[in-house]
Each structure stands twice: as C-alpha cells, then as structure tokens.
Amino acid sequence: MAATTVSPHGIVRVPHWHLTPPGTASGIGSVADRGPVAVPDARQRFALGGLSRSLHFLRHQGDVLFADAVRAGERDDGVLRYALRGAPRPIAVLYRPDHIKQLMTADEAITPSSTRLSPLAPIVGPDSVLTAVGERHRQQRALLLPRFHGKAVAAYQASIERATEAGLRAWPTGTPVPLTGIAQQITLEVIMSAIFGIADPSEVTPAEKSMGAAILRLMRLSSTPLGTMTQVINMRSSRPLGLLKLTLALVDRTIYRVLAERRAAGDHDSRDDIMALLLSAQTADGEPLSDSEIRDELMTLLLAGHETTSNTVAWMFERLTRNPAVYAQAREAARDGDDAYIEALVNETMRVRPVVPFVGRELLAPFDFGGHRVPAGHTALVSILLLHHRDDLYAQPFDFRPERFLGVRPNPHELMPFGGGVRRCLGAPLAVAELQTVAREILRRVQLRTHDRPGETPRYSNVTMIPARGGLVYAESID
Ligand code: HEM
C-alpha cells in the first residue's frame, strides 16, 4: 500500500485504501514486505487533533486505520488507540486474529456489546436484542434465534425468490441505477414477510405498507450528508434528537398502527411469524412484552435485516464490474449451477467490503492483548476491515479473488463479516441465503455493462460502510 505523506503544512495525507492497485500488499501482518513508511511526528498528528481529527475519523475511518496500522507495523502489537472527541469511551482497535479470539471468547460479563453506545442505539431503542446485554439479551436471542436458522430460513426461500423476481422486473435497462435501491426493495420485502408471515405481497395491509415506506425513508436519510450530521448530533445520546427524533416519530407511528392491527386480530396463537412470536412472548416475570419492547425488536430486525444485505449486493456488483475476468467467471458459475463458486463470491465480497467494518465490546476489566495492556473503561473495536486485509491471512488482499475461498472453511476469527462470539449476527443464515439467491439471479439474467471508473468510495454511515454511489450499474438487458 502507498505510504502516508505529510504536506508542508503538516496535514497528514493518507492514501485511499479502496483504490490500492491489485497485486499490492497491505503492509498489515507482514512487516517484511512493507515499503518505507512515513511516521508522522507529534506536530503532524496535532494537525488532525481534537474535533477535526474526530470528524476526519468518522468520515475517512478506513483510510486512517489503514495508515495507522501500516505505521504501527513497526511495533506490530496489533492494537491502535484513539481518544475521539464525542465518542463515549477511549477506543482500542484490534486487528490480529489472536487478539480478536481472546476478546470474542472472553466472559460476556466483562465484555458486553458496545451497541448501546453506538449511533444505532437511539434508533432501535433500549429494549432491542441489539442493545440489550446480559440475561435480557440471552432471553431475547434465544426467543428469536430459531426464526433465523435451519428450517425457518429454508421456508423464507420462496419469498426471497419472489422478491428477487419482482426486483428484476422493475429494474430499468440502459440507464444507470444504484443497486442498493433494487436490493433494498428485495431485502425489505423478505424481512417483512418473515416478520409478518406474508405469503403474498398483495396481502400487505395499508398499515404494513406505510410502515415499509417509512422504513425506506429512514434508510435513505441515513445515507445522506444530512444523515451524517444527524449521526453526529445523536452521538452521545441514548434517545433520538433533532431530525432523527422527527423521522423516527413518523416510523414509530406506523409500527404502532401495525401492532394495534395485529392485537385486534388476536390470531397470534395460530400464526408462526415473528410478530406472532413477539406478541405471545413473556418476560422473565411472566408479563407479555409491552408495545415499546416489541417496537424496539421490530425496528432492529427491519433495520439490521435489510440495509446490510442490500449494500452487500451493491458492493458485490461494484467489485464484479471492476474485475471483468471475475465477472465473466461468476456468470458462468451461475449459469452452470456452481453453488460453491457463488458461496465463495459472497465470502470474498464480504471480505473486501465488509458492510459492518467494526464490532465493539466494552471492556469492564483491563485486558492484555499480547503484551499491550488496555485499561478497563475502553471500547475494544474489532476492525473487520483491517483483519480482512492482513497479508498473512490473505495474499494480495486488495485483489478480488473469490477462488481463494473455494474448498475453504473460513476460520471464524479470520473472516468475520457477521461479527462473532455470543453476539454474532442473528440473521447471518438468512442474509447468506438472500445474497446467494440475488447474486445467482442477477448473474444469470442481467447483462451489466462494465465500465472503467475507479472503484466507488466507501461512505461510513451509522455503523455501516456503504458504496457512496449505491453500487451504480447499467443493465444492458434483463432476461
Ligand atoms: C450481509 C448482511 C449482514 C451483515 C454483514 C450483518 C452483520 C452483523 C454484525 C457485524 C453484527 C454484530 C455482531 C457482533 O457484535 O459480533 C450483527 C448483529 C445482528 N444482526 Fe446482522 N448482518 C447482516 C444481516 C442481518 C439480517 C438479514 C438480520 C435479520 C433480521 C440481522 C440481524 C441482526 C441482529 C438481530 C443482530 C444482533 C445480534 C445480537 O446482538 O445478539 N442481520 N449483524
């Protein structure tokens, strides 16, 4: 990777990691291969100090982390430390598999998830499986887990295929279209049908329909500059403020309307969808869940369940259109029914462009990561992005090469797009089923025009890393 440079005015310029040419080593995890590296002195670091450094980190975190990890290669203890203005705790960034394993297998009582401190907390609320910790989290996860595994996911396959078919039908040809838009409609329909048990989209009630539309509006806000500002305003608050408060009030109104409709129907004992499950569930004290507890859970599943998946689809085709040889091979694999290649393609996409680039744990006790002591009170952030670009794990890590995963069962602390440990993504099997189906169908049926523009810039929005232009593609023809 190109070295960091420093301007005569002391501004640290870091290269854009996503534009690193193929065949290049990252310099992370392979000190010997690294070229000369500029180590900025205190004056240069000061140039990015305080609030401006924090904002810079928010907007360009990938570039900053790559540059800092390459510099730290001199020590290579695999821990980067930051104190960012506005962040609730000092941060220790981990990117070595042994440190990550140590964190992910530690007692959860001293390493609870830091999601309650994340920008998602004011949106999903305090009573969601994403933000809850300890016993409450265990109970909610145990309640929901069967709906996202094994047979349940196989049952969602029909709705994945139906939604994909509708998405392809509505895709205009000959004009540039951001793939996130198409994929969001697909993933929203799939998660709505899982939650509400909708077998046929024409059965959606007006209340459910306006809830879907309100959720899409919320998603669109989060990927605009206004959304970034909203994120900064809400950074230290557990309750929504400003524009977010207003937008959420509209979404909540639609969710409560749907809830009232379902309670009035009173048919949850005879249904097996997620909404029915939540309506019949009881707390540890034998009380039914309150409307606001159910709202937090629904909001979590609706948000976690579709922005991540749709942006992964967008990144997949953003990468494929920049790598024509891989694109041709993937099309052939889809036409030949080569599922192993499609699986490898999904893994490689999530390796090079993990849509959730970090997962966090609060450290309630001091930790020693290979001799680097991190005091209690820090947030340990696993940089999935850096981990996935280590030279010692992935040769030429910036190359897009699905075949590196053929016949390989990835180690859970080396490839972790879904996080890990007891908080590993609840919806991972559903997401993988969606990604494989959507990829296969687009590859088989859509001829995308490739173009030679540089890769799309990653935009960091809430806790995600998404393609700045939404994975802009031209469909020449659709079968
Ligand atoms: C490509 C798609 C997806 C990616 C990359 C992704 C990634 C993640 C990550 C990194 C975490 C945090 C794990 C940790 O802290 O270790 C997470 C948590 C979670 N995800 Fe996903 N996710 C995806 C799709 C989904 C889907 C389809 C659902 C289903 C509704 C879902 C529901 C959840 C939930 C409920 C949690 C919280 C789990 C807990 O704290 O126990 N996700 N996801």
Automatic annotation (TrEMBL):
It comes from the Bacteria. Keywords: Heme, Iron, Metal-binding, Monooxygenase, Oxidoreductase. Gene3D superfamilies: Cytochrome P450. CDD domains: CYP110-like (cd11053). Its cofactor is heme. One of its GO terms (molecular function) is heme binding. Heme binds at residue 425. Pfam families: p450. Belongs to the cytochrome P450 family. This is Putative cytochrome P450. It comes from Gordonia hirsuta DSM 44140 = NBRC 16056.
